[in-house]
Amino acid sequence: MARLDRLAREDLDDAGCESFDRIVGLRGGAGGLYSLLLHSPGLAELMAATEAYVRFESRLALTLREMVILATAREVGSQYEFQAHARLARQAGVRDDTIRSLALGEDPAGLSDEEMAALLYARELLQKGSISDPTFKAALQHFEPRGVVELSVIIGHYKMIALFLASLDVELAPGAVPELPLAR
User: What is the pLDDT of residue 184?
Assistant: First the structure.
């Protein structure tokens, strides 16, 4: 049970309904996380726009984006975010053994140099709060400036979501099996 009520369209004023409709247009729905973000409709709309870009328009490969999101969820201990994106990662073609390794904070076997560079970048940024020159240069070599910017924003966006979920004590859906080996 979250600390705030989940909101539906009928709970919102006219301006909130407009934001709700734009969120649905961007991402196909306004449930889950967005039912809580809608306590601030304008902010929810901005978050949805960022999410829509990083999830659907980024030049980074979908499997790579989902692995980075999983690594982010693992590093910040977000069971809810990891669970949601483990499902999306599987749909994108990420192997179960890769998802298990990410849940344990291990380097998955069989990753490309590009995928490994992205995971190292994410872990370093989240663990140290900065990126070393060698890690940055490796990411730049694989992803070019645009990709490095997108990679950084994906990590920051999903860390922000994880902290938001933690602040409201959002739990997994009833019956969901935790995939992270954490007490959270």
Answer: 42
pLDDT above 90 (res 172): no
- Tell me which residue has tokens 């560079």: 117
pLDDT number for residue 182 = 66
| pLDDT value for 4 | 95
Question: Is the pLDDT at 96 greater than 50, yes or no?
Answer: yes
Instruction: Count the helix, strand and coil residues of the chain and give each as a percent rounded to the nearest 5.
Output: 70, 0, 30
The single-letter code of the amino acid at 105 is G
Total residues found in the chain within this entry: 184
Give first-to-last CA distance, the chain, whole Å: 14
Does position 71 have pLDDT exceeding 90, yes or no? yes
- For the 60-167 domain, the top CATH level (class) is mainly alpha
2 three-state secondary structure? coil
Evaluate whether 69 touches 154 at the Cβ level (below 8 Å).
Answer: yes
Q: Where do the structural domains in the chain lie, given as residue ranges?
A: 9-56, 60-167
Secondary structure string (H, E, C) spanning 158-170: HHHHHHHHHHCCC
Angle between helices 41-52 and 14-27 (to 10 degrees): 10
- Of 60-74, 85-99, 144-158, 165-179, the poorest mean pLDDT is in 165-179
Q: What are 6-14's contacts with CB under 8 Å, separation 24+?
A: 6/31, 6/35, 6/36, 7/35, 7/36, 7/38, 7/39, 8/35, 11/38, 12/38, 12/41
